[in-house]
Specification:
With 355 residues, the chain is α+β, with helices and mostly antiparallel strands. It has 2 domains: 3-167, Gcn5-related N-acetyltransferase (GNAT) (Aminopeptidase, 3-Layer(aba) Sandwich); 171-347, Gcn5-related N-acetyltransferase (GNAT) (Aminopeptidase). The protein has helices spanning 13-30, 39-47, 98-112, 152-158, 179-192, 210-223, 238-251, 300-315, 331-340, and strands spanning 3-7, 53-62, 65-75, 82-89, 117-124, 143-145, 148-150, 162-173, 196-202, 254-262, 268-276, 283-291, 321-327, 343-354. The strands form 2 sheets. It has a 12-stranded mixed beta sheet, sandwiched between helices. Helix 5 crosses helix 8 and helix 6 (210-223) crosses helix 7. The structure holds coenzyme A. Coenzyme A is lined by residues 26, 87-89, 94-100, 120, 122, 141-142, 151-152, 154-156, 158, 351.
Length: 355
């Protein structure tokens, strides 16, 4: 059997169809409660890269048949030592060295680009204790849960990566949302947030807030607890933010925001975003929520999140579930999410390898 790994040509639709099918199969097996990956979003990096990100995507073929793929994101504006990796192998062709070959291909490519470390996430079952933040090394076996197998951790360990951060996915069942309680939480947060006003938008942010939003976005990755993950603050400015907005437009992502403005200074100091992929009206991701450190302790996080839920539902009446990932260490954010009714449903571990 001949195995080869080659760069994906972005005009090669049959190969992209096969790559998408593999991604959708993996998602259906590991996270059957999530909608299938959005095809438009899946292919967008080939046509509309995020500013500062260079995506390299390769396919593995066994006797000419696409059986897996690897995608790496090189960072050009910050974190130039770090790269992100996604890797998927068709379940019908596993344990034949395809994953290993894809990783070897990516490692060579990353070494040539001057990268030192690579980070990837592997889905896991919900940990027995969702608050336990200790990353676990698999014992050489794929972990299992709810009748499903999660081979990513055993694979990453076999390739020399180390587990650096435990994450938990929590879900809000919007169909069971207690709106009276939500209104009470929002009212309580509002009275604790005297001196701040909220602003809301969908799609592009108001231009007068771009600089403050860039400041918050730049802090996001390193403000949240990172465990042992080596990651440097990201360099954001208004221009990069606009570029990111255009890339999200190209992906068809609908996004809703509520932010808090500090009355005395006029600065935007807290921000929360919910987004829906182009292929769903029922499922949203709770993305960014961040409060500038100088303005914490006024319940601005809860205020923005609770208001944004109501804001989003006004535009997305079919919305029925919202998912969010938090580091298991992120006790403050988790407390807010639990107050809003989010409950743990699945896990993930971030793995980092020196290359
Ligand atoms: C993880 C994945 C990419 C592995 O692909 P694969 O082609 O089966 O991997 P390989 O055959 O090259 O396996 C390499 C080594 O990883 C380990 N490994 C892989 N799958 C394993 C499993 N189910 N149980 C235990 N160890 C496993 C083994 O050490 C294996 O070597 P061996 O077969 O000689 O014992 C594939 O299962 C997959 O697509 N999973 C879903 C997505 C994912 O988790 N991606 C990786 C995120 S870091």
């Amino acid at each position: 059997m001949a195995l080869d790994v080659a760069t994906i040509d972005r005009t090669d639709q049959p190969t992209l169809d096969a790559a998408y099918r593999i991604a959708a199969t993996v998602e259906a097996m590991e996270s059957p409660d999530l909608p299938p990956p959005c095809r438009r979003r899946f292919e967008a990096p080939l046509w509309h890269p995020m500013p500062g990100i260079d995506t390299r995507w390769s396919v593995a073929r066994l006797d000419g048949v696409p059986v897996g793929w690897v995608r790496v994101n090189l960072h050009l504006l910050d974190n130039t030592d770090n790269a992100n990796i996604e890797l998927a192998v068709d379940p019908a062709y596993r344990r034949r060295g395809v994953g290993r070959a894809l990783f070897a291909h990516a490692r060579l490519l990353l070494r040539r680009a001057g990268c030192k470390r690579v980070v990837g996430a592997a889905v896991t079952a919900l940990p027995d204790d969702p608050c336990d933040a200790t990353p676990a090394w698999p014992d050489g076996h794929a972990s299992a849960g709810a009748g499903r197998e999660f081979p990513g951790g055993a694979f990453a360990a076999a390739l020399g990566a180390r587990p650096v951060l435990v994450e938990v996915r929590r879900r809000l069942d919007v169909t069971a949302l207690d709106r009276t309680r939500l209104a009470a939480l929002r009212a309580g947060a509002r009275s604790a947030a005297a001196g701040y006003r909220t602003v809301r938008w969908h799609g592009h942010p108001p231009s007068e807030h771009l600089t403050d939003l860039a400041h918050l976005e730049g802090r996001l990755m390193t403000d949240a607890p990172l465990g042992d993950l080596e990651w440097e603050p990201e360099r954001m400015d208004a221009e990069r933010m606009q570029g990111m907005e255009q890339a999200l437009d190209a992906r068809g992502v609908r996004r809703y925001s509520v932010a808090a403005v500090h009355g005395a200074s006029g600065r935007l100091v807290a921000w929360s975003v919910l987004s829906l992929a182009a292929n769903t009206t029922r499922h949203a991701w709770q993305q960014i929520t961040i409060v500038d450190p100088a303005h914490r302790g006024h319940r601005l996080g809860l205020l923005c999140k609770a208001e944004n839920l109501e804001h989003t539902l006004a535009y997305e009446p079919e919305l029925s579930v919202v998912d969010t990932y938090n580091a298991a260490l992120n006790t403050h954010m988790i407390a807010i999410n639990e107050q809003l009714g989010f409950r743990p449903v699945a896990g993930a571990t971030e793995w980092q390898a020196t290359i």
